[in-house]
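Internal ticket #5521
Category: modeling
Description: The requester needs a full-assembly model to guide mutagenesis choices. All entity lines are attached below as received. Residue total reported by intake: 965.
Assigned to: D.W.
Attached entities:
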Amino acid sequence: MMELYAAKFPLLSAILVTCIAGLLLILGIPGEKKSAVKWVSAACSGITLIFSLIVFGTYDKGVGGVQFVESIEWVPSLGITYLNGVDGFSVPMILLTGIVFFTGVLTMWELDTRVKAFFSLFILLVTGVFGMFMALDLFFIFVWYDVSLFPMYLLILIWGSTKREYGALKLMLYLLAGSALILPAMLYLIEASGQNSFSLPVLVQFAEFSPVEQKLAFLMFFVGFGILAGIWPFHTWSPVGHVAAPTSVSMLHAGVLMKIGAFGIIRVGIFLCPEGWAYWAPLMATLATIGIVYGALAGLGQTDLKYVIGYSSVSHMGIVGLGLSTLSVDGLNGAVFQMFAHGVMTALLFSSVGYIYDRTHTKEIAELGGLAHTMPTASAYFIIAAMAGIGVPCMASFWAELMVFIAAFKVYPIRAVIAVSALIISALFILRVVEKTFFGPARPQYEALSDVTFGLGIPRMILAAVIMVFGLMPFLMVDTIQTASSILLGGMP
Amino acid sequence: MMNWMLFSPELFTLGIAAIYLILSLMPSHDRRYDGLVLILVGIGVVICIAGLNQSGELFAGTYRVDLFSQYVKLMIYAGFAIIVGLCRHFSGVAEKHRSEVYLLLSLCTLALMMLVSAIHLLPLFIALETSSYSLYILVFLRSGYKRSVETSLKYFFFGATASALMLFGFALLYISCHSFYLVDLGRLLSHQLSDPLTQTGFILALSGLLFKLAVVPFHFWAPDVYEGAAHPVATYIATVSKVAAIAVMVRLLALCGSGGTYLIVFLTAISLLSMTLGNLSALVQDDLKRLLAYSSVAHAGYILIGLLSMNSMGWTSTIFYGLSILIMKLTAFTAVILVSQNGKNLRVSELAGLHQHAPALSLALMMALFGLAGIPPTIGFTAKLLIFKAALQNGFMALVIFAMINVVISLYYYLKVLKAAYYMPSENEAPLYKESVSVKLFSYLMIVLMILGGIYPQKIIAIAAAMMGGGV
């Protein structure tokens, strides 16, 4: 099921090494030299973006399987291997992380307090995310998973805004509770396999788990990773965390971190326990549908701009969950595509809101209004992202949602109808926000505010461009994902 | 003809003790003595390293020098050396008593070294008592603390009770096995553990060690003693003496083969109690040392999980855990010692602003806290992973899940400390503490050790496995 193709050049490790080198370099720079820190971060993120573009571009869709594989014996006595590789599921995620990392660093260009600490933690977090997406060994999957979580606490606590102490603590405890479920399940499966190996390909190929083991383990993985993926009813940390976090951390958080959760469900849960997946799929579909509806309804009632986006994330991640629960190639393609599309889209949303908040110092929708008069460009970015969120055709998420719903209609018609109708609500609340924030009469207190300059606009332009490119040419992404999902489901009953 | 070379690290430590016995008779303490002890202990570490591969028996087969004992001795000595190095900063002890502190610390270290080499119950008991008595006095030597008499008496009474129980256990074991030699016990215990008398004897015999580890219900002394002892002494109790106790627990439990049912049930029960009680009590602590004391109680619970697995993976992982505790707790206590220069106890909130004046130290503290909470990529995570893996080999899934829940609970109070050090604004303008170059280097060393042990544990696991390879 997992064909491995060795890498000619250790491209994946190069990404990690770039991140770690950038981190060490920043730690070596004195704290007063803020611009040096920023330039090093930008260079580091730029290089990783180039590497991830190369990974995306040179992944051979004709061959499929797991490519760019690097393998080093790590702890032979326990069967831990340093095993990296990407397949159709992780290639889009690597690209997503590269994009959000680069644009995130550029978005924080105006940061002035404790710059060095911010960027070191930020890079550490991204290192964990990259590692998680490329690791194929359960030990490293778990290590990278947690490395991507713990910097969040300090990032939100120190640079955050609304209710940051509460938000940071809640987020941390929830996510750690998730790993408290994941680790025992992983170790149990490793013991039960009798293979003395942490390596995922080995376990997938040789281990045979009984149906009961698969069902229990899948449930633990689903809940454990699902907390991070914002699956209802474990989502409550996520809007609070989004709101409390500083702009680029929200971007990473909603854009990439929540995808780690969904990706973990695929990589660990579905790959190791396919029967458990099939067994719990109806429950996943139900929870996902509730999440979609709940996120949309809750979003409707929010007065804080960031809360709106936070709840729309819950709703959109529900679509990912729905796609995963269909047990079909289309559903999986749609789910992974949605992970990518939502990542880019939310990053743009948070990036635009961050810009507006930095100028107006408020996120209250009621206090904003008429911003399109003074900041036409900033408004345009937000509106582009909002349109993508609604699922307007020619935007990347349109295709993703379309694929998920087509697959869902075949398997769970009623739940699919409910979910699709919820999308209308979400269109309603997003349009309401757009109207109240950007249109209407210009407010005098915002008249002096400057619009997005070209330099500050670069990250937003990149994100908007990515949404459009994959909206117009969805096959670029779907063909890649297809290589993995068709193989995965080829082995299914 | 005895081979005295085998005994050289112990003899050298005895020499240090003798020197400081003489120096303590001098009318006043000279600052140069502090430098002298550092040099002497440094030589001691070198002697320990040189003696790593020695093996043999001494004193009519009651004292064994092997890979196991030598590596544990190195750990003990390294911890001792670091604490002595930190002693240059301490002021929790009156100036005139400093020679006595060095005397007692080296005596205690000597006793702990003998403890891990003893393979006969009598020297084992004598070594344990010698180390305990040194500590009773050391706890008393705190200056400027009102309740030091109360604290040391409390410590003494609990300790004496535990020792009495332990002796009683030895007596019961002698009734059923007719020998004090661990080798004989090992031969007989694996068959006889179903016998209630043997089993009771064995469990009671562990009590002295459970006391040292601060396992519930032998933990009552821990918070008061950590709080009441001078900082370096509390550090010593939290690190070095724990490592020795863990090693002897491994040595004794490895005698039992797969272990009797009651023994495992007993260990499971106290492990669950220790974790839960330790973590829940730590949640509400304000005093940093009390918090660390309860965290020690919780960690004793995790350690017991490794021990009660009763398999080779379990022994390896427990030794690994011992090392991780040594490193992480030393780092956390270093922050305590250095920040509270005046020797007063430190509230958690008093760490505020640490990251501004001591970035390296606070980074090390952060890694230590994450390690204690069991978050990767630190050595604390890998230690927990190994322990859980060992427990799952015997199918203790429920225990592992329970332990993970505890890990989540414990995260709350570790984050509280972290928040104080990194986020809360400093209360007063004057810098808390300005770090010197040596402290910076030491912090970086500890950070590297914690991360390296976390992501590349291969070497340590191999050594720990080799330590257990020689058998008891």
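Resolution: model delivered.
Comment from assignee: The interface with chain B takes residues 74-78, 117, 139, 142-143, 146-147, 150, 153-154, 157-158, 165, 169, 172-173, 176-177, 180-181, 183-184, 187-188, 190-191 of chain A (CB under 8 Å).
Ticket closed.
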